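Lab meeting, item 3. Inverse folding demo.
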């Protein structure tokens, strides 16, 4: 293959395009990381059910089985999610 000015310029153009794409990807990654860092670590909520569920997630399966408050909280969460009324919760 003979190196001419035209092939050299094409190679340079391809290399510059690749560098530009790499720089754009790096900038996008940096922007996403800054956006994630700017988000609050914990969402402050006035919902006591949410706070109870967060506590219940830290329990072991054995402790969770014995904790009636957690069982009631998970049941209420399922009821809210599926939109069922409280009198239909036992009949599935």
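The presenter then showed the designed sequence:
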């Amino acid at each position: 293959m003979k190196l001419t000015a035209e092939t050299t310029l094409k190679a340079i153009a391809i290399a510059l395009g690749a560098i530009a794409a790499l720089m754009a990807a790096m900038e996008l990654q940096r922007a996403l990381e800054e956006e994630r860092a700017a988000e609050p670590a914990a969402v402050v909520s006035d919902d006591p059910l949410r706070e109870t569920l967060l506590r219940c997630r830290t329990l072991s399966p054995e402790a969770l089985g014995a904790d009636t408050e957690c069982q009631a909280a998970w049941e209420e969460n399922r009821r809210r999610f599926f939109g069922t009324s409280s009198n239909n919760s036992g009949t599935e």
